[in-house]
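Course assignment 3, question 2. Fill in each field.
Student: A.L.
Task: Predict the tertiary structure for the chain below.
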Amino acid sequence: MSAMTMRGYMRNFGRLAWRRKAAFAGGFVALLMLLAAILAPWLAPYDPNEQDILLRMAGPSEEHWLGNDTYGRDILSRIIWGGRVSLFVGVTSIGLAMLIGGLLGILAGYFGGRTDRIIMSIMDMLLSFPSLVMGLLVVAVLGPTTGNLIIAIAFTAIAPFARIARAPTLAIKQRDFIEAGRALGYSDLRIMVVHVLPNILDEILVLASLWLATAIRTEASLSFIGLGVRPPTATWGGMIRDGFENMLDAPGLVIYPSIAILIIMIALNLLGDGLRDATDPKLRHE
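Answer field:
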């Protein structure tokens, strides 16, 4: 995508997002949470793994705004650091899925025929498994580490990206400028990268924003059942699991990280709606 095209796209998105306050608010909240995760070493008031048994399940106070967990650790600090883990896993896994799935979708749509049938058959097989079940199987086989968690979540998202990239590629490869490129002797690789990819990138980005929320939810779910990042590393799903047994005595142990997950998922879905509107030709000139 050229610099001129990218500037026009971002300008169009900014105008539509500003007029659609929900999309603007979603993007703003998602950005704030991303910045908080990046700046966790400076924003978190305490070490997320520092224990004080005297403050075990203590309620909110001036020193600990959200209270302490079952080990006396500061809940606010663990939520901030947990967001760093959850967002890192989500962004990395979706970026990997977008790269692999988008490449497979472009290859299937561009070459068609046997290549298309083989790739799409594999993608259909992957889509037959729910994302959480597929992630559970992969993590169970590879082991619960951060790297394996990223691979597992990326594996569940490859098929949707392949399908969303294939459909517009089928239409674009019939356009006159593609035929002109072939007539000029351009290689298939150059045509796919320079001419096909920029024309389908907007649809891939919309799907990425929506699947990022799904990736964060999947990471939290796997951490909740003990197949996520190993303790004592703070993750939102792990915090919910740790506080579940004491939910009646200290409901904040479960409620606070759950609210963090809910906020980021709503924000990303609102942002995804804004991106979709920005890429819709019917809305570009409203």
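Instructor remarks: The domain at 3-40+58-279 is CATH 1.10.3720.10 (MetI-like fold). The mean pLDDT is 84.
Grade: pending
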